[in-house]
Amino acid sequence: MEVSKDLVNAVYEAVRVAKQSGKVRKGTNETTKAVERGISKLVVIAEDVEPPEVVAHLPILCEERNAPFIFVPSKQQLGMSLGIDVGSAAATIIDPGEAQHIVEQVVTSIGNLKGAAKKG
Protein backbone atom coordinates (compact mmCIF):
# COMPACT_ATOMS: atom_id res chain seq x y z
CA MET A 1 0.00 0.00 0.00
CA GLU A 2 1.69 3.17 -1.22
CA VAL A 3 1.27 6.12 1.13
CA SER A 4 1.70 9.63 -0.28
CA LYS A 5 4.09 12.14 1.27
CA ASP A 6 1.14 14.43 2.03
CA LEU A 7 -0.62 11.65 3.94
CA VAL A 8 2.56 10.78 5.88
CA ASN A 9 2.97 14.46 6.83
CA ALA A 10 -0.67 14.58 7.94
CA VAL A 11 -0.07 11.54 10.15
CA TYR A 12 2.98 13.12 11.83
CA GLU A 13 0.97 16.33 12.30
CA ALA A 14 -1.99 14.41 13.78
CA VAL A 15 0.35 12.72 16.28
CA ARG A 16 1.98 16.04 17.18
CA VAL A 17 -1.33 17.86 17.72
CA ALA A 18 -2.91 14.92 19.58
CA LYS A 19 0.14 14.80 21.86
CA GLN A 20 -0.44 18.44 22.80
CA SER A 21 -4.23 18.53 23.03
CA GLY A 22 -5.40 14.94 23.39
CA LYS A 23 -3.90 11.62 24.37
CA VAL A 24 -1.32 9.39 22.69
CA ARG A 25 0.51 6.23 23.65
CA LYS A 26 4.02 5.63 22.41
CA GLY A 27 5.99 2.45 21.88
CA THR A 28 5.02 -0.98 20.66
CA ASN A 29 3.80 -2.32 24.02
CA GLU A 30 1.60 0.68 24.84
CA THR A 31 0.21 0.66 21.29
CA THR A 32 -0.52 -3.07 21.44
CA LYS A 33 -2.39 -2.66 24.75
CA ALA A 34 -4.45 0.24 23.40
CA VAL A 35 -5.47 -1.73 20.29
CA GLU A 36 -6.37 -4.76 22.43
CA ARG A 37 -8.53 -2.54 24.64
CA GLY A 38 -10.25 -1.09 21.59
CA ILE A 39 -9.34 2.53 22.39
CA SER A 40 -7.08 3.31 19.40
CA LYS A 41 -8.34 5.93 16.97
CA LEU A 42 -5.26 5.67 14.75
CA VAL A 43 -2.22 3.40 14.96
CA VAL A 44 1.06 4.62 13.44
CA ILE A 45 3.82 2.10 12.71
CA ALA A 46 7.36 3.01 11.59
CA GLU A 47 8.70 1.11 8.57
CA ASP A 48 12.37 1.37 9.54
CA VAL A 49 12.15 -0.74 12.70
CA GLU A 50 14.94 -3.28 13.24
CA PRO A 51 14.22 -6.12 13.61
CA PRO A 52 10.84 -5.82 11.81
CA GLU A 53 9.40 -8.57 14.04
CA VAL A 54 9.08 -5.95 16.79
CA VAL A 55 6.02 -4.46 15.07
CA ALA A 56 5.02 -7.37 12.80
CA HIS A 57 2.03 -8.30 14.99
CA LEU A 58 0.50 -4.80 14.94
CA PRO A 59 -1.11 -4.76 11.46
CA ILE A 60 -2.66 -8.18 12.12
CA LEU A 61 -3.98 -7.09 15.52
CA CYS A 62 -5.31 -3.85 14.02
CA GLU A 63 -7.13 -5.78 11.29
CA GLU A 64 -8.68 -8.09 13.91
CA ARG A 65 -9.81 -5.16 16.07
CA ASN A 66 -10.81 -2.88 13.16
CA ALA A 67 -8.33 -0.26 14.29
CA PRO A 68 -7.11 1.99 11.45
CA PHE A 69 -3.33 1.81 11.03
CA ILE A 70 -0.77 3.36 8.75
CA PHE A 71 2.94 2.95 8.13
CA VAL A 72 5.27 5.94 8.18
CA PRO A 73 8.85 5.83 6.86
CA SER A 74 10.75 7.05 9.92
CA LYS A 75 10.70 6.04 13.58
CA GLN A 76 12.90 9.08 14.29
CA GLN A 77 10.31 11.40 12.78
CA LEU A 78 7.55 9.58 14.68
CA GLY A 79 9.51 10.09 17.91
CA MET A 80 9.92 13.79 17.13
CA SER A 81 6.15 14.08 16.53
CA LEU A 82 5.64 12.47 19.94
CA GLY A 83 7.96 15.04 21.48
CA ILE A 84 10.68 12.57 22.45
CA ASP A 85 14.38 12.56 21.52
CA VAL A 86 14.46 8.92 20.46
CA GLY A 87 12.70 7.06 17.70
CA SER A 88 9.43 5.28 18.32
CA ALA A 89 8.56 2.03 16.54
CA ALA A 90 4.85 2.63 16.99
CA ALA A 91 2.33 5.02 18.48
CA THR A 92 -1.41 5.31 18.76
CA ILE A 93 -3.78 8.21 19.14
CA ILE A 94 -6.32 7.51 21.90
CA ASP A 95 -7.92 10.96 22.00
CA PRO A 96 -7.17 13.15 18.98
CA GLY A 97 -8.07 16.39 20.78
CA GLU A 98 -7.62 19.25 18.30
CA ALA A 99 -6.29 16.77 15.71
CA GLN A 100 -9.77 15.23 15.30
CA HIS A 101 -10.28 16.53 11.74
CA ILE A 102 -6.77 15.43 10.67
CA VAL A 103 -7.32 11.95 12.14
CA GLU A 104 -10.68 11.67 10.34
CA GLN A 105 -9.04 12.65 7.02
CA VAL A 106 -6.20 10.16 7.54
CA VAL A 107 -8.62 7.33 8.46
CA THR A 108 -10.72 8.11 5.36
CA SER A 109 -7.56 8.07 3.21
CA ILE A 110 -6.51 4.73 4.71
CA GLY A 111 -9.96 3.32 3.89
CA ASN A 112 -9.67 4.61 0.32
CA LEU A 113 -6.17 3.12 -0.06
CA LYS A 114 -7.33 -0.26 1.23
CA GLY A 115 -10.33 -0.18 -1.10
CA ALA A 116 -8.06 0.60 -4.06
CA ALA A 117 -5.61 -2.13 -3.00
CA LYS A 118 -8.41 -4.73 -2.87
CA LYS A 119 -9.65 -3.77 -6.34
CA GLY A 120 -6.14 -3.76 -7.82
Q: Can you describe this structure?
A:
- Belongs to the eukaryotic ribosomal protein eL8 family.
- It is found in: Cytoplasm.
- By secondary structure, the protein is of the alpha+beta class.
- It is built from 5 helices and 4 strands.
- The protein has a 4-stranded mixed sheet with strand order 1-4-2-3, sandwiched between helices.
- α1 (5-21) packs parallel to α4 (75-81) and α2 (28-37) runs parallel beside α3.
Provide a short characterization of the protein structure:
This is 50S ribosomal protein L7Ae. The chain has 120 residues and is α+β, with helices and mostly antiparallel strands. The protein has helices at 5-21, 28-37, 53-65, 75-81, 100-119, and strands at residues 23-26, 42-46, 69-72, 90-95.
Low-confidence stretches: none
What structural class do helix, strand and pairing data support?
A: alpha+beta
Strand content: 15-25%
The end-to-end span amounts to 11 Å
| Sheet of most strands | 4 strands, mixed
CATH superfamily label: Ribosomal protein L30/S12
Mean pLDDT: 95
Side by side, the strands of the main sheet go 1-4-2-3
How many DSSP-defined strands? 4
CATH top level?
Alpha Beta
Based on Cα principal axes, name the global outline. globular
Helix run count: 5
Q: What order do the helices and strands follow? A: HEHEHEHEH
* Overall number of structural domains: 1
Tell me the Rg in angstroms. 13 Å
CATH architecture: 2-Layer Sandwich
Could you estimate the helical fraction of the residues in percent? 55-70%
Protein name: 50S ribosomal protein L7Ae
Subcellular location: Cytoplasm
Family: Belongs to the eukaryotic ribosomal protein eL8 family.
GO molecular function: rRNA binding; structural constituent of ribosome
